[in-house]
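Supplementary Data S3. Sequence and structure tokens for construct A.
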Amino acid sequence: MAADATPESTLPNTAAETSPDNPWPLQLLSRKLKAHIERAPSAWIEGQVIELNRRGGNAFLTLRDVDAEISLPASVWSTVLDRQKIPLERGSRVVALVKADFWVKTGRLNMSVKDIRPVGLGDLLARIERLRQALAAEGLFADSRKRKLPLLPHRIGLITGRDSDAKKDVLRNAALRWPAVEFDVREVAVQGNTAVAQIIAALRSLDADPHVDVIVLARGGGALEDLLPFSNEDLIRAVAAASTPVVSAIGHEADRPILDDVADLRASTPTDAAKRIVPDVSEELAMVRQARDHLRRSIGRMVDRETDRLHALRSRPVLATPDTMVAARSEDITRLQRRSHAAVSTAVVRALDQVHHLRAQVRALSPQKTLDRGYAVVQMVGEDQAGHTVVSSPAQTPEGTPLAIRVAEGRFRAVSTGQAQLVEH
């Protein structure tokens, strides 16, 4: 440090403590940045080589992300490149071990490649298979999550390449099967580093449209590297989260992308997808005619069967001569009336006889009946003429006793002569 420079002991310890009156020297900031960056560990990254220039013992390359428009310049020693069995070239897919370096004198951040390896087809397939197994373990491929396609979708969302054969196949074959079919076509990149983002955006847009009943992702096959976007984890999870049924129509039988496993329906080709998402109008009309004929025959058989039942019912005696039943019931009522009248008459006669008998008994036992047979009731007349005492003994009537005698037809007065004698029974 120069003699007139500010001693570090008087400088702020952290960047937050700096101020216009007490700033850091540029070299101090650079040294601190270098120390901070050097603490960052090395990292393996994956990308695609889009630029590669050799300059003596050093080389400069640019890596681009496989799924996004992001690139990173880096430097690599020629000795690292010379170790490769197959020389790297533009378009190669690689994994590289990079470490950040900061050049204090120039203030530049440089990514230094410590090791680099090409990604072969075997590595890609192994990586896809590991992702497939991990997503399957989460249950994203379970049959219970898959939704049924509507019998006749109102509108079909189609995600495909710009002016691609896959688009033409789906539109043409679907229109041949069902002329009234409607499509909402979203043309996107179906390969390259922008494909995943564009496909996900189109998928979410169609899924949010309530008029879209099914979504088709169509591509007419291709090399494994071209189909990698359809095995991207972000795209797979977006398809799994969609509420609208999704059909995968990638058209590649040799290496199935993971999209085929998560989609609600897998079609072998875009043409096959068109055949499976809409019915054939001629077949449907034939089925309608067949169903109509079957219904007509069924109704005819039912009408004939019920007609025979009506004839059978009408031929029964109870319906052929319904007055027979009424006459039989009328005779029963007449017979019951006669029996009731006879029973009541007999009971009345018996009751009348009983009344006459009881009346005769009552009359036979009455005092009047005794008087009618010649008996008389003798009573002594009291002095006050108010009451009479029945004479039951001659001793009760001395001579001259006034008497009242009651016979069957009336009363008369008499006087006792006293000559009566007691008669012994």
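Construct B, processed identically:
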Amino acid sequence: MSAPSAEGSVLGFTPGSPTVLRILLGSQLRRLRTEKGISREAAGYAIRASHAKISRLELGQVSFKARDVADLLTLYGVTEEAERAPLLSLARQANAQGWWHKYGDLLPAWFEVYIGLEGAASVIRTYENQFVPGLLQAPGYARAVIRLVHDVAPEDEIERRVRLRTTRQRRLTGEDAVTLWAVIDEAVVRRTLGGPEIMREQIDHLLAMTDLRNVTVQVMPFERGGHAAAGGPFSILRFPERDLPDVVYMEQLTSALYLDKPAEAEHYMRVMDRLSIQAESPARTRKFLEGLRSSL
């Protein structure tokens, strides 16, 4: 496999997506290594590191040192400057700090990864059964959700967390806006958080978001009984870069699970397709939300 050209999709990435750049570079290095039949142990020895570090580098979980990348490229037989330069340039870009760096004291490492992926995705499909998805939360509702988890946090920290969430929502507008398709359980909008006024604001916000051409919302009504997503909430992120697989994200209380094997992602995509069929249509969902709004 040859290194990507400067005109290719890898180096055409917009600034501010270091997480995805690391994943792309790690993927390139992994392919080069396996094509040469070199073990992780041997690769680690070449850069004075363990096989575990090679694994983390190839998964894009850690930053890259230019010297390490250069040494690995030499080991893998990539010696022509025209082939090395794009990958070394990618390593420099991958070490850049994302816009969310100033919130680093609030973010666990496992969620920083998600924000980076979210910022680079072209399509996000999500199912939620407890809360409105973060990208669709109104400020008052977001504040109420955040207080549930950070009930002893000072007020300034709460407001910073709200700003972080609303800043993420910029992905829904602009020239490179992400396409968001959300299926939410009826319980999400029935459960009152922060009081009736906050819920009215949230439903108004959902209705406004569905006016965007790139946002689709469907409600899964109680009357449908059991459905395909019996295992709980999840999101599927798809990227415009051919080298990046779909990623399934499942958040837990103190960690998250990321699945990127094709078979796993395809399974969750089939579940999401069934959910979209079982749920109310976008038009009927809008009528449902309007009726619920008038009853609050």
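The beta strands are 123-128, 179-185, 215-220, 234-238, 247-251, 256-259. The two ends are 60 Å apart (CA to CA).
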